[in-house]
Amino acid sequence: MNGRDVLYIMDLMSAVASQLAGAIFDLKNIIFFLLVFYFFKTVYKHYLELGDNIGHYRLGRKRKIIEEIVLTYLVCGFILSAVSLTLGITISQEAFIYYLFIALALTVINIRYISFVYSGGILILAGLIPGGPTVDSTSVLILMAFVQLIEGILVYIHKGRESIPVYIKDNGGITGAFVIHKYWPLPIAFFTFASDNAGFMLNPVNAQWWKVMKPEIIFPLAAFFALDSLIGVGGYMDVAVSESPKRRSIKISGSFIIYSMFIGVFAVISRYFSIFGIIGAVLCPAGRELMLYIHKKRQQNKEPIYKPVGRGIRILDVFPGGSGCKLGLERGDIVLRVNNRDVQTVEGLTQALTDFPRYVWIDIKKPDGRSEVLSGSFFPQGIDKLGIITVPREHEVTYNIDTFENLILIKNLVNRFRGFGKSSDNK
Question: Which domains are assigned to the chain?
Answer without folding.
Answer: 3-300 (no CATH), 313-391 (2.30.42.10)
